[in-house]
Design brief:
The protein has about 400 residues and is of the alpha/beta class. The chain contains 15 helices and 12 strands.
């Protein structure tokens, strides 16, 4: 079955965004389908769809031969996200910039699927955002939602009528947060809570992807990954620095703080770390090779779990567009709520307390199985003629 996906995949800095798009396609292909992501929005940056020319990367310069880390070599271009898209994502031949374009020339598909990522945080007061509610294409095609995120505790009351109208179009609905399930219920639709697509694959799947990179890693280091942090007021930094200094650890950091932001505007947040700009594959290897991880990122946490690395999560304050539900829902379900770092956290004591990965894996496998059941059952829905006519 041809499955056309609407999701976010355009970022030049956000590792989780590209990996969730990659993971969903991989899972759908394993189920015997042909998935592809619709090139919607910002498409001028995506043409031509060809890999970057080979270039010396940040990790070449910073980590080769175990030389001391220095920050001067880091540049955004070294992430090579365009190359990853070209090599690892199936993308539509045509690019679209508006909903009207999609309506006029819809990509061919037997099923349209939206998700994951924060696609439903794009409010419906902007008509083009109905793209992520699949308001285009043949009526007879299946329309499914896999793990989209509202990133809201409640949908704006004045837009609930619009939300109800657009949810009616779907044959099956799931969301990435429990708050999303409640938002759908409030307007009359049943949704299932499922895990992010990245969690449908396992650690070995990502190690195989990471093996495409052969860059050497430091011998002993802690890893920091932060997203959309713009103020130096998180309690985790001082705790992290204090422990690292005591343990004599290097600190390697990666940020995803928006497009086009000067690295100097971000690197001051954690001045004792060396900021690097790895490819997707190198980013996974940096997580896998670290002694432990500190992150403010949902996907940073996810990959620490999948790769069985000790980790801490620092929740983001509301002023920084928190979106913490996706973090706390998964931690609670996996029995890892104690991994949230606060000003009272004894980092050294926490690191002495090992994580029971067998128990975590058992809980994760139950969530993964439930999510896969939702996905496979949804893909097997046979749409009735009357629903196709009136959806």
């Amino acid at each position: 079955m041809r499955i056309a996906i609407t999701t976010f995949f355009q970022s030049q800095t956000n590792y989780g965004q590209l990996l969730q798009a990659f993971a969903l396609q991989q899972v759908l292909m394993k189920l015997g389908h042909y998935p592809y992501t619709i090139r919607y929005g910002f498409h001028e940056r995506l043409q031509p769809l060809q890999a970057d020319e080979p270039a010396e990367t940040t990790l070449d310069k910073l980590l080769a031969n175990q030389q001391p880390l220095t920050a001067e070599a880091g540049t955004e271009a070294n992430r090579h996200f365009d190359a990853f898209r070209a090599d690892h994502l199936n993308l539509s031949e045509s690019a679209y910039n508006t909903l009207n374009e999609l309506k006029a020339f819809p990509p061919a598909a037997d099923c349209y699927l939206t998700g994951s990522d924060q696609v439903w945080a794009q409010l419906l007061c902007n008509r083009d955002n109905a793209t992520f509610f699949l308001d285009f294409g043949k009526k007879k095609a299946l329309r499914l939602a896999y793990a989209p995120s509202f990133s809201l505790e409640a949908y704006p009351e004045e837009q609930n009528v619009l939300l109800k109208k657009h949810l009616k179009r779907f044959d099956a609905i799931s969301t990435r947060e429990k708050t999303g399930v409640e938002i759908c219920r409030k307007v009359g639709y049943q949704a299932q809570w499922v895990v992010d697509p990245t969690m449908l694959l396992n650690g070995d799947d990502y190690r195989r992807l990471a093996a495409e990179s052969k860059q050497p890693l430091p011998s002993d280091y802690a890893f920091v990954y932060h997203v959309n942090i713009e103020k130096d007021d998180l309690p985790c930094w001082s705790l992290f620095n204090r422990y690292n200094n005591k343990a004599g650890l290097k600190a390697v950091a990666v940020h995803a703080n928006g497009e086009g932001k000067a690295k100097e505007a971000v690197e001051f947040l954690h001045p004792e770390a060396t900021y690097v700009y790895p490819t997707i594959q190198e980013w996974i290897r940096l997580i896998d090779g670290s002694r432990y991880i500190l992150t403010t990122s949902f996907h940073g946490m996810v990959f620490a779990i999948l790769l069985h690395k000790p980790f801490f999560v620092s929740l983001r304050p509301k002023s920084m567009f928190a979106g913490n539900d996706r973090v706390t829902d998964i931690l609670s379900a996996l029995g890892l709520s104690d991994r949230v770092v606060t000003t009272e956290t004894d980092v050294e004591a926490m690191l002495r307390q090992p994580i029971d990965w067998d128990a975590v894996d058992a809980r994760l496998e139950a969530l993964r199985s439930r999510s896969m059941t939702y996905l496979t059952n949804s893909l097997n829905i046979r749409k009735s003629w009357w629903k196709a006519l009136f959806s």
